[in-house]
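pipeline stage [seq->struct] | target=6,7-dimethyl-8-ribityllumazine synthase | organism=freshwater metagenome | residues=162
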Amino acid sequence: MTRAGSQSNLVELDGTGLRIAIISARFNDHIVTALRDGARRGLTRLGVEDSDVLEAWVPGAFELPLAAQAIAETGRVDAVLCLGTVIRGDTPHFDYVCGEAARGIQDVQLATGVPVMFGVLTVNTEQQAIDRSGPGTDNKGDEAAVGAVEMALLLKCLRTTN
């Protein structure tokens, strides 16, 4: 288990019983697989059972929001992690994909009430992506997993407090 939150409000995170979806983009899959592995490690560390993790793959980061929405609308998951990697190139394609993926992911969580984590690396170089997808807890997939558990627990608490 891990601690998260401000220093004045540290909370133990226990993901036992949570159901989490991981949606991964195949484009740059050598990086995204490392992010997915980091997310899995993070979920396991927080007590989420492997059998409570649903995984799906989509072609690229642009398709993440649609898959996230489809999974969130089923009511079968407490949170969704969207994982991808977009590396800047010589054209404005990078800006369109990153911006629309971010907007779409935000729209899904606001429309469904299910936390959807933005675990999409938006980097200038492949080395930056490799540096953010390593084996430690600084892996951005692991960080997205921690955020998903934290938000799922927070929303459960907020929704039952009345």
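stage status: PASS
auto-comment: The first strand starts at residue 2 and ends at 4. The beta strands are 2-4, 11-13, 20-25, 53-58, 79-87, 116-123.
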